[in-house]
Amino acid sequence: MIRDHFRVLEVNMSTGSGRVHELDGRGHAIGGSGLAALLFERFGSPELPWNHETQPFILAIGPLTGAFPMMSKTVAAFKSPYHNQYTESHAGGRSALALRFADLDALVITGRAETLSCVEAGSGKFRIVDASFMKGLDAYAAGRLLRSMCGRAGHRSIICIGPAGETGVAMACVNADTYRHFGRLGGGAALGAKNVKGIIVHGDGSFELPAGQRYRKLFKTVHDGVTGTAIMRKYNRLGTPANLQSLNDIKSLPWRNLRQTSDAEGIKGIDRERFANDALLGKGACAGCPVGCIQIGHVREKISEDNRHIIRQLAYDYEPVFACGTMLGVTDCFQVLEIMDAMEKVAIDSISGGVALAWATEALERGIISEKETLVRLKFGNGAEYRRAAYLLGTGANDFYRLLGQGTLKAAAEYGGSEFACVLGQEMAGYATGELYFASQSLSFRHSHLDSGAYALEQKHDERDIDKAVEFLIGDEPGRCLLTSMVACLFSRSVYTREVMADCLDALGGGHIAANLEETAERIRRHRWQIRFATGFCPDDVELPKRFYKVKTWKGAVDPRYLDRLRLAYGRALKGLVDGKHIKCRG
Amino acid sequence: MKILDTPHMERCTGCHSCSLACARLVYGRLSWETAGIRIYPVAGPSAGFDARRCLACKTRPCAIACPTGALSGRTGGGVLFSKELCTRCGDCVPACPVSGILQYNEGPIFVCIHCGQCVDYCPHGCLEMVDVHDTARSQEEVS
Q1: CA-based nearest residue to A378, from A394, A365, A391, A393
Q2: Which tens digits make up the pLDDT trace of B33-50?
């Protein structure tokens, strides 16, 4: 049932045409991350800028997508407007199953449309539609309009960008089926550069399954594993916001631009319990995921004096709550949701946006910038001002916000204050656990906490051994590459061991992939890094702002010397993964 | 005699596990479409999800519309489906007032046979197999 090649739809926005490619490489690229790297190599150009019209925007799924539980995510790959290097961003929602049931392993958008446009694809359907009337529409309105434009609801996926993506903000995200996002590193701008406002994928195909009981029995075993008590409790019942209290307890939760790592009083207004009791409306799931970790909250907005209110629903997770809550000193759960809501509308990544505004607040406090730049009075704890600032950031309201939207360090290079910019390759994720995590996020492939288990390991271990740390970071990556090539939700990683994945592949006729998983994982890891290096990555160039050297966690103060040596050793190990000809480091 | 009921759709997260289970176990397909139970989002103030499926009615307009006897009455409500007798005419599809039957690409039809295999795969307890006399509508419609 797993075909031995990839079926890829290329949509050329310049010519307005589509073409199906049947490509070899299933055995060594698998799908997802591996397939995306293969496709970038075929369609992309390492040396051309991110917004060159020939650069591809890639969506890729895996061989097990839809066929097993929690194989429910899609990999987006593109050259990032944030650092002009190759990257990936992953999202759940319905896009993975929609692509699967559209009989596509990947969708590749190339070229640039003359006017803002939408792409509609699926089994039996393909069209590019003018969407110039959607120019400037926020992501909520764009999603509503796209839903009404393309037939019946349900078995389809809609991804779209907001004003930030249209105007090239490097923090622009892609909204996926309302509650999920291809969030980090500017996928929204990459799509906007192609003049694509939205993509609709209809998944109305149906495929014959292998006869016999093997696949069905294996499905049940995996299903029982992912719906067992531990995963359901952690991700459905409690949800990721449970991390707020636990990280605060161990002095690893960034507060107020990382000047603190704990706040015993402040956490009470935004911990998991407060969100669950006051703001939670219900739970949602990505298609094909029985766990359902999406926590859906609400904001209630008064729109006129005569008691007229509207309610909007939005998903919240640990990361956005950290960035729009603790990082900004906002300790009221509804104010946090209102800031996130503003970011949803303009469609910027709420983690990057929150962390950038935290820097701007401290810069304003220190007098490095003034209200002439910020236009609003940014002050830690003042949710209303942050809500306005989120809009200004997402729409690039003035020179200051346009620069800040390109990345906090870009703004700091112009105005000063780089020493307190909380940037680890990109704006930090919510883990001030110490040296191992700072080294990991600052140098890892996606600059994501999910690139390695450093954030989790460091909550329990305080050992400072460079060799062991580098061995862990390098050793942890291939397994994650395998999961993101399948493309599994990483919350299922305890169930999908290498053996289980091999069994799943074999049950669906993918025995040739299953036979060499270890070797294939390593090859995919190296291939991704090769492209990343070829597009300009150099570990030596990634700055680590001084703020990270002054953090105090449960382990005590960060050891600056250890942190520097660890980063150096990790960077050296990363360089060792690729052929020297791809490395373009200065000196 | 039991039938499939969906008494707790307010708990549905839209994971489609039930549809995928029906397609996999009843029809031998990988699909969220070609199944006897299909999940669609509901818009409006009561936003959530709706399960489209056979409601096991006693009047069985689908069976009446079927010209070849492929659909016949099932004890307790709903229908029995004979693949062999089906000519794929699709007359049963518009006959069902609740869109319980799906015809795929002018080919075979997909209808809930009230076997209950989907229930085990709903992780949030939205679905139940119930005795016919337990359902609220059973008095008038089914039994």
Answers
A1: A365
A2: 999 999 999 876 667 899
**Quick one: B125 exposed, middle or buried, by C-beta within 10 A (0-12, 13-18, 19+)?**
exposed
ipTM: 0.90
CA distance B39 to B121: 14
pLDDT per residue as tens digits for the range A203-235: 999 999 999 999 999 999 999 999 987 888 888
Q: Spell out which chain A residues touch chain B, with contact meaning CB-CB distance below 8 angstroms.
A: 1, 66-67, 69, 97, 101, 152-155, 203-209, 211, 216, 219, 223, 227, 232, 236, 282-292, 294, 313
Collect all residues of chain B within an 8 Å Cβ-Cβ radius of residue A313.
47
Which of A361, A389, A418 is the C-terminal boundary of a domain? A418
Strand, coil or helix: A15: coil
* Concatenated DSSP letters of A378-400: --TT-HHHHHHHHHHHHHT-SHH
Domain at B132, CATH number: 3.30.70
Q: Which domain holds residue B9?
A: 2-56+98-142
Q: Which residue of B has its CA nearest to A100?
A: B31
pLDDT in tens, A261-296: 999 999 999 999 999 999 999 999 999 999 999 999
Q: Is residue A219 part of a domain?
A: no
- Tell which of B20, B40, B109, B122 to mutate to test the A interface (max A CBs under 10 Å): B20
A526 and A410 share a domain? no
Test the A interface: residue of B33, B34, B42, B122 with most A CBs within 10 Å: B33
